[in-house]
Amino acid sequence: MKLAARPNGSGINALNGEARSLIYFGDHVRMRCGVREQDECFVKVPLGTEALDAFMPGAPIALEFAPEHLRVFA
Fold first, then answer.
1. How many folded domains does the chain comprise?
2. Domain annotation covers residue 59
3. What is the pTM of this model?
C-alpha cells in the first residue's frame, strides 16, 4: 500500500481522505482517516513510513492499495 500526504489518489484502488489521528501499536501505527461516505477508516502503517513524518490531523491524504491488501470489516 502507498500512503501519501497529498489529495491526488487516482486509479481503481485509490481513495482521497483526511488524516485524523494515529494510534501506536508497537510494531506499526494505525492511522484513523475519514474517507468519502465513511467517517472512519483505519489504515495499518509500518513504522518508518515516510508519510508518518508529515502526519498532520486534518491534512488531505491519498490512500492507494493493491487489491490483495484491502480488508473490509462491516
1. 1
2. yes
3. 0.71
